[in-house]
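REQUEST ID: PR-0412
SUBMITTED BY: lab tech R.K.
PRIORITY: routine
TASK: structure prediction, single protein chain
INPUT:
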Amino acid sequence: MNKAKAVKPNILFILTDDQRFDTIHALGNPEIQSPNLDRLVANGTAFTHAHIPCGTSGAVCMPSRAMIHSGRTLFHLQKEGQSIPPEHTMLGEHLQTAGYRTFGTGKWHNGTASFARSFQDGGAIFFGGMWDHWNVPICDYDPTGTYANEINVIQNPQAGNKIMRVHCDRYMPGRHSTELISDEAIRFLAGNSSNQPFFLYAAFMAPHDPRSMPERFKAMYDPDKIRLPENVMAEHPFTYGVRDIRDEVLAPYPRDPAEIRRHIAEYYAMITHLDDEIGRILKALERTGKMDETIVVLAGDNGLALGQHGLMGKQNCYEHSVRVPLIFSGFGIPRGCRCDQYAYLLDIFPTLCDLIDVPCPASVEGRSLLPVMQTQQAIRKTLYFAYTDLIRAVKDDRYKLIEYTGQIRMTQLFDLLHDPQEQKDLAENAEYTATITRLRQEMSGFSKQWDDRQHPMGKAFWDRCEI
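STATUS: complete
OUTPUT:
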C-alpha cells in the first residue's frame, strides 16, 4: 500500500446472489464463461477458500449480508440477521467518516434504516430477497431514509404466491435486474466528477432463481453437455428439516439428472450474463481514468447445492453452500495471487480498512486478510458453521464434522483432503473417534466464543445435542 498517496483509493464492491465458489473459469471451472471475473482474478488476489458461517434463517443471504456490512459474527446480529443494530458500525457508515462518498444500488436485504446509515446516495434499490428479474420493484434514493412508499403485491409463484408488502417507487418491466443494477452503477461512475474517493456498492440479484436471462446467454449452455458433479444424488441420505422448504421444491424428488443439468446450465447462463454486465461496469470505471486508483472487491453472498447431496438450496453446511468467491483486485492488491487460506466474508470490512489505512471500528469482529495477501500467513485455521437450530459444523485444515439435531440426530465426518466433495462419511469408523472428539471440542469452544448458546436457535440446538 502506498501510504504517501494524497487521496485514498476508491472502492467498487460487487456482491452477487447465490454464486458458489466454483463458478469462475479462471479458478478451475472449464465449463463456464466468465472473462471479466477472470480479469479480476488475473489483476488481483483470489481467496479460493472463502466462506460464510451459514445462517440463522432459511434466507441465508440476510445474515450473510449483515455480516459483510457489519463485520460481526453470526450470533452477534439482530433479528436473525435482517437488521443491524445502530451500535454496530457499518462499512459504508465508517467509510463516510474516512471521507468517502458512498453510493448503493441493487439488493439490500437488511432493512431501510441500515441502508440509510450506509449510503449518502443511491438508486435502483431493491429492498427484498428475490423477485422476477424482469419486473423488479425498485426504490429511488430517499435522503430521509424512510422509504415510505409501499405496495401490497403477490410474490412470484416460486416464492409461494405470498402476499407481500414491499418498498416500491416504481417497476422496471422488461429490464433484467442485472442490467438495471449495472446501469445504475455506470450512471454513478459517469456522473461522478468529484475528486472525493468513492465507495460504490453494486449488489446483484443474480444468479438467484427464478433463473432467467437474455436468450443469447441461455443459448451458450447446452444442458445435455453439462457435467454433473460426482456428489449429485437423487435425494439427501436423510431428512434433517429442509426437505419441503422453498429452495428444495424447485426440482421434484427424486432428483432427475436431466433436470439437474438444466438447472446448472441456466445457473451458468445467469452468471455469464452477470459477468458481461460486470464488464460494462469495469469499462465505465476505465473511462473515468480511475481504474488504477480503485480497489475492486467481488464476492458471492452464499453458495448453492443444485443437486449436490440431493439438495437444491443453501440451507446446509456442505462445501457447495458455505464456500463463495472472494476476489480483491486493483490498487494495492498483489496481482495473480491465489490464497487457499481460510477466510470469512466478514473479514472484508477490516481488510478494506487496512487497505485504505484507516482504523477499524471496535464493533468489527472480522480479521484483516491483508497479511494473507502479503505473506500467505493464515489468520484462521478452523471455521465454524451453523444453520438455524438444525446444524452445527466445524472444519480444520483436513476434516469437517457436521452435527444435526431436530428431525434427526446425526453426525457426519468428511476428510476434505481425500474427499473434497464430501461423499464418504467416516463418522462410524472407529479409527476416527479421536478426530471426532477433538472436533467436537473445537465446535463447543466456538459455540461459546460466538455466543451461539445464548441465541434462541443455538440454545435449541445445544439443548438437543449432548456432545
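NOTES: The domain at 10-379 is CATH 3.40.720.10 (Alkaline Phosphatase, subunit A).
REVIEWED BY: pending
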